[in-house]
Write a structure and sequence with these properties.
457 residues, alpha/beta, five-stranded parallel β-sheet, 17% strand
Length: 457
Amino acid sequence: MLNFTKFERINPEKRDVLQRLKDYNEVYQVFGKHRAREQSDRCMQCGDPYCHTGCPLHNFIPAWLKQTAEKNMELAFALSNETSPFPEILGRICPQDVLCEGACSLNTGHGAISIGAIETHLNERAFENGLKPKFTQSKAGKKVAIIGSGPSGISAATFLLRKGIDVEMFERDDRAGGLLMYGIPGFKLDKTTVDRRINWLLEAGMKLHLNCEIGKDKSIKELEEEFDAIYLGIGAKQGRFPKIDGEDASNTYLAMQFLTGIQKRNLGKKDSEFIDVKDKRVVVIGGGDTAMDCVRSSVREGASTVKCLYRRDEANMPGSKKEVVNSKEEGVEFIFNVSPNKVIKDGDLATGIELLETALSEPDESGRQRVTIVEGSEFVEEADIIIFALGFSPEAPKFLNELNVEINSWGGVVTQNYQTSNKKVYAGGDCQRGAHLAVTAAADGREAAKEIAKAIS
């Protein structure tokens, strides 16, 4: 260990831009074993590892880095999976630059450890060698219903099954995975990777009900009567419009509508919601990772031009920096310090969007600079397709009222230690914290599973 002066930080190789724009295959290559060991060997094995505290799951990062460097694949795999429900997925999609790698002690000088790439490598290599996640064979005689099959639901199912608690998962869509399946493009996460984790849960005894909407295909009262507890992992998929004139034009869309239509098409399902942007001028409003997913997908779909409009500067963008770099490499144009004022329409069709220039002032409570409008700075950006990627809100389905589950002013489920106002119902992930990261949803699912297990034991 301590070879950070001998080996420089190396990022995983990316496929050539011209090649990767032809398909939705993953952009990043998985480390080879030599590279993974070399990069793991850079870790200083800090006594107080900031990477561990910077990770929402508090993964045992230095421990599995050491075992990877020392060629102990089985122990590295066990340590990686001990705290995380799907490390090979999070290794691919987490914004490590603002989490574990951002907190790495080497980050300010020699370059942070390539934690995400190593995490992906050690798990994929373990799978190649026949290792799989382990679940107990003993049964607790209890069963839990999980509503939603996204990151939070998968995580809760994983940790409940490990404790011998039976799980039935209810998903209203045609495939399990939620955000991981339909919200994240294949060039970041191959969908066979998601299917693999779901299949392991099924092997462990989980029952999965697809195309099953609670409140429509099955009543919530049935679940309340049949199960010892219910876990809500319903996410926050309701997109936000900016509340400006003209946003109701027939060619303005929300990000998830756009991304889901493409993914369903790619999976071979003919979907009426597919949005064709070929040879069109696409404008995406927003600066987070979802906006980057939209612009990068638009380029792959053959748009004539793709522009990302963001109200702050590049330094203040909320998403992963590598996604911005990848977007630029793939031909996306960025226009910073602009805010949408109104959609310009010709009849029912948007022809462009009027923008106002912005200026940044003192930081707000979050530490990010405040945005002020520059008066008299209006200009129009022409567009054939406008996509709004401005965050998400919980949907707050009607069955929450039937359960007497309290929701707050923005539609989020109110919890205390993941338990709702209905003592039999628990919630985690975006539906109770607001739209956030897959890793925080996974952490919620794990911790909620612990609380559920204690309550029903």
